[in-house]
Amino acid sequence: QVQLVESGGGLVQAGGSLRLSCVASLRPFSSFVMGWFRQAPGLEREFVASDSWSGTSQRYTDSVKGRFTISRDNAKNMVYLQMNSLKAEDTAVYYCAAKPTYGSWIYWGQGIQVTVSS
Question: Distance of alpha carbon 116 from its chain centroid, rounded?
Fold first, then answer.
């Protein structure tokens, strides 16, 4: 059974930083695109960032460009989201996700809360 488990969330003041981590029981991990999504109260889940299987091609939603960085360690089956200059509007439940290169997002973590106080 595939599992994606997030960690590293919590409460931080505006302007601060957090690093989310996700460990995935995917085999082989390196064949999957990894991503982060988030869902704020009352809103739909939105794409935040993704990283190609090789870790050489990243994509970001416009609102986090220049502040968030996604990275992965294929040897450890890990993906990370470094979040800097956090804003109150970044408050959400963050989800780790995985998909085949030419497929849909099919594997999801349980989500982790990030709260940014203003």
Answer: 16
Structure tokens at 28: 């082989």
Identify which of 23, 15, 24 has the alpha carbon closest to the alpha carbon of residue 83.
15
Q: Which two tokens stand for residue 46?
A: 């939105």
Closest CA to 33 of 7, 59, 8, 9: 59
Distance CA 40, CA 110 (A): 15
Instruction: Kindly report, residue by residue over 55-103, the tens digit of the pLDDT.
Output: 899 999 999 999 999 999 999 999 999 999 999 999 999 999 999 989 9
**CA pair distance 110, 28, nearest whole angstrom:** 21
